[in-house]
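Exercise 7. Given the encoded structure of a 571-residue chain, write a plausible sequence.
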């Protein structure tokens, strides 16, 4: 097992020259093996799942090491959370040992071994790509970007293929020693972050390494080595080569780890933030409050993570992109659009441009747009509208964003305090607050108008039938399977009450039905409403389709088959 390793120890310089060339080997230190009695890393620091993977590989005759961040964090006195295993077993051999595993990736093939909710990532030792390797094994672009890197090698080659010296640390399950191939322990002691090899070349191979450098510097409170720091400003535009879907995962690692504020400042310093959020960066240069708003949102997220409270990327994206939304909404209003359609058009434009740089899945982009829409509703503090706003599924996130907008200086303080008091108040205090908002010119609605009772929804106004127009009954089916479908259907039923010359008579209970078409989606939650209307059938259809468009659904055709309702009653 250690024959090749012993040979490497006898002449490390010559081995490195043969593997990576004279230039790459220059300045690379000899490997240092730290025995168990000389380091503080213990198996007690590792999860049971990681130990199971290590021992099964070892017992099957393969080399098995814990590598990277878990060893680095253990040496720093931190409790490691993620465990990566490096081995000389190929992905197929690893999969053969673990039924609870699957091979993922095409650019870098790795194996995920799953134990319940914990995933252990197993990688095969990588070697140096050569000209004789086919494109499906190793491929590099003309700019130096690694498109595929599935050349297997030995532990020495693998160590020098890693990005930072502090991550080229291997913990052997055979004798519990640590193998340090690039003076990583020395850099940990000096709190220095240093790339292995020529920094410009390594950044060109994978520009995401620039984001990793910033993330580790912020997370560990390390300083970037001068030679590792120097090329970042010049090479930052290489980030535009990275697929948006991959950058979404990287953005979550950057901002959802509890060190978002410092990470953001480093990204701005090195010119990397504008590669991820170009329109947000432009807004920060023009709006005096935009940058502070992002920092306030990141500080709030950092506090919640520290307190082990839930966080969502939807809120963070809503804050980061709010500046561009405000700018584009002003442009749309200058063209004559009313505020709400202008906001919806601006939201669509901002999201469309952002998706070209960082993907935002719909499970986050739809709540994000709800948070933006609620910024228009929060100032409208009259009657039933207040209670509808408070019961909205995104109210709390929208309220938090409102507070941050006031803290950042975009809005004058006051509205946030009103909503804070309203949420804590009893019925009588809520009535007083509504009276105050109605009498205040800064509030919404006509001054002095008495608000609806606070304890219940405002009583429905009596519907007066216009003379000379016949009344017809219509039955309308509603359904949703996005986000919180019950809330979506409830809002749709409320919207029917606001249709002109129309009133809702009765509505069914909610029921579930299977989707028509592709089956890899959630069941629909539906309801049927009966309305009485003075509108003609075509006029009613136009009103309903306009209502759909205001909620961002556009039909490709006016007429379509009605889905067959299911039979599973929800409530």
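Solution.
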């Amino acid at each position: 097992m250690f024959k090749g390793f012993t040979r490497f120890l006898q002449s490390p310089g010559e081995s490195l020259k043969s593997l990576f060339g004279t230039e790459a080997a220059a300045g690379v230190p000899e490997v240092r093996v730290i025995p168990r009695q000389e380091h503080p890393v213990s198996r007690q620091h590792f999860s049971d799942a990681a130990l199971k993977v290590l021992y099964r590989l070892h017992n099957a005759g393969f080399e098995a090491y814990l590598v990277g961040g878990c060893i680095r964090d253990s040496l720093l006195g931190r409790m490691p959370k993620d465990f990566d295993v490096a081995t000389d077993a190929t992905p197929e051999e690893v999969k053969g040992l673990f039924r609870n595993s699957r091979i993922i990736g095409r650019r870098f093939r790795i194996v995920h071994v799953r134990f319940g909710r914990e995933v252990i990532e197993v990688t095969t030792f990588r070697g140096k790509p050569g000209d004789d390797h086919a494109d499906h094994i190793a491929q590099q672009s003309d700019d130096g970007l690694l498109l595929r890197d599935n050349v297997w090698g030995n532990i020495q080659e693998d160590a020098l293929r890693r990005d930072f010296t502090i991550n080229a640390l291997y913990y052997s399950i055979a004798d519990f020693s640590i193998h340090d191939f690039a003076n990583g322990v020395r850099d940990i002691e000096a709190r220095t972050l240093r790339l292995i090899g020529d920094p410009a070349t390594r950044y060109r191979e994978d520009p995401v390494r620039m984001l990793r450098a910033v993330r580790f510097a912020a997370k560990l409170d390390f300083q970037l080595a001068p030679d590792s720091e120097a090329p970042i400003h010049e090479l930052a535009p290489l980030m535009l080569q990275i697929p948006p879907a991959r950058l979404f995962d990287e953005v979550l690692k950057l901002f959802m780890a509890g060190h978002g504020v410092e990470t953001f400042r480093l990204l701005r310093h090195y010119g990397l933030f504008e590669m991820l959020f170009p329109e947000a960066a432009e807004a920060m240069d023009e709006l005096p409050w935009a940058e502070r708003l992002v920092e306030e949102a990141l500080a709030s997220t950092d506090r919640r993570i520290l307190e082990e409270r839930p966080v969502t990327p939807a809120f963070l994206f809503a804050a980061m992109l709010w500046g561009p939304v405000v700018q584009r909404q002003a442009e749309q209003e200058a063209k004559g659009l009313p505020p709400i359609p202008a906001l919806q058009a601006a939201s669509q434009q901002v999201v469309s441009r952002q998706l070209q740089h960082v993907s935002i899945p719909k499970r986050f982009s739809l709540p994000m747009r709800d948070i933006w829409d609620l910024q228009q509703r929060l100032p409208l503090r009259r009657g039933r509208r207040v209670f509808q706003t408070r019961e909205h599924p995104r109210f709390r996130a929208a309220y938090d964003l409102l507070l941050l907008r006031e803290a950042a200086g975009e809005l004058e303080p006051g509205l946030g305090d009103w909503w804070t008091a309203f949420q804590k108040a009893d019925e009588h205090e809520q009535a007083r607050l509504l009276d105050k908002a109605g009498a205040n010119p800064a509030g919404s609605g006509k001054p002095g108008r008495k608000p609806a009772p606070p304890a219940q929804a405002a009583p429905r106004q009596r519907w007066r039938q216009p003379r000379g127009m016949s009344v017809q009954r219509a039955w309308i089916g509603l359904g949703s399977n996005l986000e919180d479908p019950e809330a979506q259907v409830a809002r749709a039923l409320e919207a029917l009450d606001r249709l002109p010359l129309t009133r809702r008579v009765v509505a069914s209970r909610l029921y579930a039905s299977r989707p028509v078409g592709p089956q890899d989606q959630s069941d629909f939650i539906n309801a049927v409403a009966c309305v009485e209307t003075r509108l003609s059938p075509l006029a009613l259809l136009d009103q309903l389709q306009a209502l759909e468009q205001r909620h961002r659904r556009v039909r490709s055709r006016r007429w379509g088959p009605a889905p067959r309702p299911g039979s599973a009653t929800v409530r």
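Remark. DSSP finds 26 helices and 17 strands in the chain. Students should compare their own answers with the one above.
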